[in-house]
Amino acid sequence: ATGAITDVLPPADATDSGTTTYVLQSGDATAPQNHTGCTATLYLVGHVPATGEHKVLHITDVRGKQACEVFTIGAAGRNNGHQCQRWRPAQSPPMRVDSIPRRRAVVNGVAYFLPSHLNGRCLLDYDSVAAFDLEKEEWRPAPIRGPLSSERPGHCDQLLCFSLAELNGHLVMVHHNNLRKTVDMYSLSPTEGVEWSMGPSLRLDSVLDRNRKGETLVQPLMELDDRRIALFVPGTQHNVVRVYDPRKETRTDVMEMPRGHIIVGCYKGSLLPFHGMGEARCVCG
């Protein structure tokens, strides 16, 4: 995050070549704060639909206390200015949030986080969700109550059985239900309320390939037009991107990557400026 940052704009804001790239060289932007005793740190990039901006949220964890700051990518370039771009401090989250990538998601300009698995205690609101508004650069005052904790508080020891994803513009809570051997999905209402609706429930035995070592969980990436679901499936030796058909309960592996690749995302915008590329592409890192 202290090196070069590149921002690729959509064609409407692009140059004749179809893209505009802003590269922050040394001295063009301030570095994020260096917190002594930092035990965990995370960076999250999100798009703000209302302004078209992309922002980076940086959260550091220092012995259980978290500090936040925000950076706008390419702001000086778009404003034709040469002023130094700066990280702006933001309030701390309403609860200690997790740094594991699959336990956070960005939907319509809001970054969502599940509680930290390092809290060291049984949380009654184990599936609650903290929300950070990227446009306002502030946390919502109280976490959103999850779909299960109000009814089944006994599941509080299963923090890592939950993850978050963005599917079709909705925040989705993913629950690896080891008792039922299913992957249950709950979708959050787009209104200001906290209503969750039950979505697809996938049988683990049909989603996972038991011939591949170490397959125990799946992370949804996107729902395709034909209702199939693209999934990221980590394994002991290799990770794969898998397309699963919940109606036929069939699966197809479309990409294999080394074990070190642990973060996969999907770009859903127009790829017309990028010659030789299809309409959708997964990006791994």
UniProtKB/TrEMBL annotation:
SUPFAM superfamilies: Kelch motif. InterPro entries: F-box-assoc_dom_typ3 (IPR013187), F-box-assoc_interact_dom (IPR017451), Kelch-typ_b-propeller (IPR015915). Gene3D superfamilies: Kelch-type beta propeller (2.120.10.80). Residues 32-198 form the F-box associated beta-propeller type domain. It holds the Pfam family FBA_3. PANTHER family: BNAA05G37150D PROTEIN-RELATED, OS07G0196600 PROTEIN. This is F-box associated beta-propeller type 3 domain-containing protein. It comes from Aegilops tauschii subsp. strangulata (Goatgrass).
